[in-house]
Amino acid sequence: MKKILEVSNLKKIYYTEKEEVLSLKDISFNVNEGEFISIIGPSGCGKSTILSILGGLLTPTSGNIALLNHYKISYMLQDDALLPFCTILDNCLLGLKIEGKLNKKNKDYVIHLLNTYGLGDFMNQYPENLSGGMRQRAALIRTLAVKPDLLLLDEPMSALDYQSRLSIGDDLYRIIKEEGKTAIMVTHDIGEAISMSDRILVLSKRPAIVKKEYDIVLENKSTPIQNRSDKNFSNYFQKIWGDLNEKN
């Protein structure tokens, strides 16, 4: 597999008026082209901090991030962040407008994505008229519109109810795989991580290190919902659950 990202000895310290807080102690991992990687760990251990550093929103205290070649990164937030006064199409074109790359070819590509992934009939509607799951799908299409190579997904289904999470997880996974993208997802949901990922990084409590790494091998890998029925699913679940509940 072709390696596209190297993260080495990443460290992050937050400074307050009274103290300094070591969030990330020593984070190292690689990402290969086409992989879907999940990062999971205890609350407050710095999972989203890693994505923010990779996305350029935070500066690491030390360590190195090497994005090999000229790969482009896009960040999908927890909230869909769709502008209520813009249509779904205009929301999906927003990144292209900001980058100054909105032309007929790129607009046609976005319309193609909307039509392909079930939002073609809603492109002229406003966000308030769409379900939470459809809004998340629109947010992903907005992220894909700028043609990134690597997607950073910060708990993209966290605002949805359980049934919607399962359904939209299938949708997001299918879109990412069909569009040939590489993804790093932060999640609290062990089952979500196992069902969607090629590899899982388990972080320790703060200050975080990569405590365990799992290559997810399922006998009949399919959609995330179907993957939950694989006989290896429960084994991974128990191991990761144990990792997260260890005292150290």
In a few lines, what is going on in this structure?
By secondary structure, this protein is of the alpha/beta class. It has a domain at 1-71 and 152-157 and 184-248: Rossmann fold (3-Layer(aba) Sandwich). It has nine helices and nine strands.
Q: What does this protein structure show overall?
A:
This protein is α/β, with parallel strands linked by helices. The protein has a domain at 1-71 and 152-157 and 184-248: P-loop containing nucleotide triphosphate hydrolases (Rossmann fold, 3-Layer(aba) Sandwich). Helices cover 35% and strands 26% of the residues. The protein is built from 9 helices and 9 strands. The protein has helices at residues 47-54, 88-92, 94-99, 104-116, 132-144, 162-178, 190-196, 224-227, 233-245; strands at 3-15, 20-32, 36-40, 62-67, 73-76, 150-154, 182-186, 199-203, 208-215. A 9-stranded mixed sheet has the order 4-1-2-9-8-3-7-6-5, sandwiched between helices. Helix 6 (162-178) links the parallel strand 6 (150-154) and strand 7. The two termini are 33 Å apart. The mean pLDDT is 91.
The name of the CATH topology of the domain at 1-71 and 152-157 and 184-248 is Rossmann fold
| Integer-rounded radius of gyration | 18 Å
Q: Tell me about the biggest sheet?
A: 9 strands, mixed
Secondary-structure element order, as H and E?
Answer: EEEHEEHHHHEHEHEEHH
The residue fraction in helices comes out at 25-40%
Number of helices: 9
How much of the residues is beta strand, in percent? Answer: 25-35%
Detail the poorly predicted runs. Answer: none
Strand order of the largest sheet: 4-1-2-9-8-3-7-6-5
User: What is the molecular shape?
Assistant: globular
Q: What's the architecture of the domain at 1-71 and 152-157 and 184-248 in CATH terms?
A: 3-Layer(aba) Sandwich
CATH class categorisation of the domain at 1-71 and 152-157 and 184-248: Alpha Beta
Secondary-structure-based class equals alpha/beta
Give the strand tally.
9
Q: Averaging pLDDT over every residue, what do you get?
A: 91
Name given to the CATH homologous superfamily of the domain at 1-71 and 152-157 and 184-248: P-loop containing nucleotide triphosphate hydrolases
State the distance separating the first and last CA atoms. Answer: 33 Å
